[in-house]
Each structure stands twice: as C-alpha cells, then as structure tokens.
Input
Amino acid sequence: MTTPHTPKIPYGGDYNPEQWPRHVHDDDHRLFTRARIDTLTVGVFSWSLTQPGPDVYDFTTLDRIMDRAADEGRRVCLATGTAALPPWLAKRHPEVNRTDFEGRRHRHGQRHNFCPSSPAYRDHATAMAARLAERYAHHPALLAWHINNEYGGACYCELCAEAFRAWLRDKYGTLDALNDAWWTAFWSHRYSDFAEIEPPSALTEHWRGPDHTAFQGITLDYFRFTTDALLGCFLAEKEVIRAHDPDTPVTTNFMGMFRPLDYHRWSPHLDFASWDSYPPLDAPPTWSALAHDLMRGLKDGAPFWLMEQTPSTTACRDVNPLRRPGELRLATFQALAHGADAALYFQLRASRGACEKYHGAVIGHAGRDDTRVFREVAELGGELESLGDATLGARTPARTALLFDWDSWWALEISDGPSRLVKYQEVVHAYYRAAREAGADVDVVPVTADLTAYDVILAPVLHMVKGDLARRLEAVAARGGTVVTTFLSGRVDEHDRAFLADVPGPLAPLMGVRVDEWDSRPRDVVQPVHLGEETYEARLVFEIVLPRGAEPVGTYGDDFYAGTPAVTRNRFGDSGGEGWYIATALDQPGVDKVVRTVLARHDLLGPHADQPAVETATRVAPDGTRLLFLLNHAPRPARLTARTAATDLLTGKRVEAGEPLTLDPLGAAVLRLQ
Ligand code: GLA
Ligand code: ZN
Output
C-alpha cells in the first residue's frame, strides 16, 4: 500500500472544529474553499470528547464533522486521537501515566505521555480505534487513518521494566548471551536473573542525563525497546482498524530526524510515511531536505505526506519568527521536490486557549481571509491545484545514497569518549549538504538497504557496523563505486562492544587504513588540513591514520601529527572503485571539496552545481515524465541557463536548451523536461 489515491496533492491540515460552535464551521468551510483546502486532519486530540467516560462513547460531534466534510467535497485524514489521555482514564488507571527518567510517576496533564506498556492504555486506545474504524470505514470523506500523534519518549515504570525484561529474554534467549553483549564483567554487573535488570535511568546507570550511561549496551537496548514498545501501540491500533477497514491507508506522523525512535524499525509497518516539519531556527534548507529524504527512505523511496508544517510561526520556542513572504511556498515546493505527495498544515484554525493559541494558523482569531498568511496559503492552494496529478507518485532517481543509522547515532552520542562534541546529525548533514548543493539527488537509506543501485555511498560517522554491511559496502566499490566514511566509524558492533581489530574495524580493508590513535580537542582548536592546493579547517577529533594501501589526499598541518594523512583514498578491486576515509571533522568547504571530487568521478554533479543556493531535485512520474524542481533559497534572483528544453508547470512557460532561466528571490519552478 502507498499514499492514498487522490486526483491532486491533498492540501489542508489539522482541523479542530470540536473546539468551536457550529456557526464557526460555516466560516471554516467558506474559507477552505477560498484557499483550495480539500483535506482535513480530524480528531487528533478528541479522545475526551468521543469517550467522556469509561463506558460512554459519543460520536455526535465527529459524525457532524465527517458528514459536513463529505457534503463540502473534502476528504478526512482521521486520527484515532490516542495521543492525549482523557482525564478520567489517567485518574482511574494511574499506571497509564508515564514514570519519568528520574523515577517520578506523572499524573494527568499535557499529552504524548502514556505508558506504552500499560494494558489499560493499550485496551482503551485500541477500543477507541476499533470503534472509529467500525463507524467510519465506509464514510465517503475518509481518506487515510492517522494513528496517535508524534509517538515519542520513554517510560521507566515497573510495567515497562517487566516488558523490557521480556523483550531482553526474547532477544538474547539466555542470560549468558546478555551478559556477554552488555560486557557485564565490568563494574560487577553480571546478572544471574532477568528480574535483576533495571531500566537505565537517573536512578540506575545514568548520571548527567540520558546521554551519560555507565553501560552503553543497556541504554542502547532501552532505546530499541522503547522504539518497539511504542511501535507495539501503533500495531495494536492498526490491527483493529484493519479488522474493519482492509483498504484505507494507515500512517502515523513522524518527526524527521527524531533521535528517540528508530523509525527504520517502524517502516515495514506503515502503509505510507508522513511527517511534521518544523526545522530548527536558522537551519539551512538542506536540513529540512535531509529530513524529507530520510522520510522518503522509509518506504524505499515511495512518496510520503507532509502531515504538518506551520503556515507562519510556531509557538513553543522562546522566540517564534515568522516565515517571511515566500518562505512557506518555497518550503512546500521543497517538500514536493523531495517526495511529498501531500501538503498539510498545523493548523487550519488557531485555537482560542491553551499553549498553542499563538501558533500560526491558516485562519487566525479574527477569522479573516485578507491576512498575508491567508493570501499566501490560498495562492499556494491555487498553484497546487494547477499541478493536478503531475507530481503524484513520482520517485527520485538517485545514484547517491547516504546511510542513516539510529544505532550509530545513539552509540556515538551516549559514548564516553572520544568526544561529547561530535553530533551525529551535524556530521551527517555536512556530507548530505555537500552532495545536495552539488546537485546530486540523494536517497537517505538504512544500513540494511539494497545498495546495488548506487554509485556513491556516503557513510559519515558510521560508528556501529552490523551484519554484512562491510561486505555490501565492499561490493559497491568492487563494481566501481565509491564509499566515503569518516572518523569515528567502524568502532563498535551491534552491542556497542569495540571491535578487537584495527580501527576502522570491518571497514579497514575497504578504506586501506589503520587508525592508531585519536586526538579529541575543544571546539576552539583548529587543525589546518591541506587538500590539494587548498587549506581547510578541521575540529573536534583528529584521528592518526597509517595508510595500509590507501594514498593520502589531505594532510594535517599542525601538532605532532603534522604531515600525516587526514583524508585518504583507497583503490579497491579491479573496476576502479574507491574507499575514502575522512579522519577528522572538516569544515563545510572541506567536506564540499571531498564530496564534489567523488561525485565528479561518477558524473553526478547537478546541472547548476555552481549555484549552491539553487536547489535542484529530480522526480520521475509514474508515466516516466522527468520533473526538475528548481528552488532558489536566496533572497535575490538566480540566473541560470536551461540545460534541456522544458516547460514550467507553474507558469506554463517553455524554455529551450541554452536559454536563460531566471528564478525570483525564493522562487520555485517545476520543469517538465523533454
Ligand atoms: C506537533 C503536533 C501538533 C502541534 C504542533 C505545533 O507537530 O503534532 O499537535 O502541537 O506540533 O507546532
Ligand atoms: Zn511504563
């Protein structure tokens, strides 16, 4: 199953009419029509309304919302609403409330804080999902199921401790295997009974918070357990929905690069991926692009839904800047360029009270349609309508893959040594950014992905190497491809035990290097790295590399290892393949230099690689039509030369090869190539 079948890009978002008297609904629909809004995400937080007491269900309001949507010709992404506990449930079954990392049992409040192991939660949530599915499976407005909301966070209660022990029994079989995996001879941790095992928290293995643990193996397994426990909640709801509705696609909204949950463990169970994009303040455009590509990678490159973005501003940050004129449009076309088949907002109408009343919305408190935000939303709605189905179902023909691995992310960031300053996302983003700004389409894939379609594999900070990955990377190079990896890669096995071998462990033969030592320094220590004619800056970690077959491409400029290799290239196999090892955290220009050199070898530099502010992305529609998205992230016009004849689907204008092509500041074009 893939994204729901629609004649055009679904456009709309989170809609909470249950917060409003009925006359407001009339205004809503009038305004939705003006803004070309055709899709409503309904019921995300309506549990206490639809089930006001243990044995009382009341669907009057939801019926009205659904029927009204159908009458108006709109479709509904219907949420099961199980992400915020109704007060009566929290009171009646206190164990549905989470116990936090410090061991405090919470009481009713906020949301996204149910215990995933509580049978009372599970029973009530699935009962709700089942009733909704039974009632609305054949409703004409129903387009998709939206289970829960933004799953995340961990619980440390006794029920979770028991569930963790059962999960461990299942994983390891015997205590011997577990003791070996966790290396429990260290600090007298040998377990003689599963009952002795405690969740790793502030009361047990941790100090200074969730990243400081005495036993990485235990903490890693708790991350994996938490991922699976929440997945279990999702699957339980999905199962009861399926019992009543075999056909409607089911999703849950993810959060892109969200560390607590390994979304790759979820992906087989989603009919389609969807996610909520709230990029960090001042993040470069490649940050959201990376998250989009990660989400597209969940379902082997199939399109996903952009389930939420703000039309203007967030509310939860200390400062909440506006999206400037044009930024919403550009971000939306960027999502489409990376594989989104829907463009939805949080939220359609601003809530009147509580903590999100100042969150941006299509319709503000005054209910006007002549605000800047409403105008931009409506204009964008018109443009998306004009695209029809041209982009739906299109795929990305990438020949570059970036490996993204939650296990490596976790292992790296909970490690004592070499450096707490190395952040997984930052290093991964630097390599992704280099490839994207050079115009390469990039698939962001799990380490288990089939790599045979790719010429270039970027595997930054691949701290943990599992299974047959090293062999599959060697196979890429053996058929002439290039594999790039970095410092702090190839360090530990799946249990976070160091490899009893030269660093980078199983990657050493492909890289042709041996790393003997590593120097970790504060952020202000800068090491010059000479690469060709240029000198770049490196920081944080400087690995000392002995070439074992590889040739130095760049060298350190300072300290006792001055003149030794910082960047190496190893020829591998007989087909011209290479393994590149980057032994330090190069600055962005240095990463750009390396990645562009590698991409150029495979003729993968994009048509406008000389203009890094112009993002390009290719999608191939199901009928084979090639679409080239051009996105100008700069606040000034971009002047390009068309490489092939094309028609801009947004303006209808045609350009011939060699003709000038100008993009407005923050402008976008969707070129149909021929
Ligand atoms: C998340 C949630 C929404 C809302 C928005 C606000 O994405 O899913 O319910 O809280 O954040 O930005
Ligand atoms: Zn719990």
Remarks:
- The chain has a mean pLDDT of 98.
- Residues 438 and 600 are 9 Å apart (CA to CA).
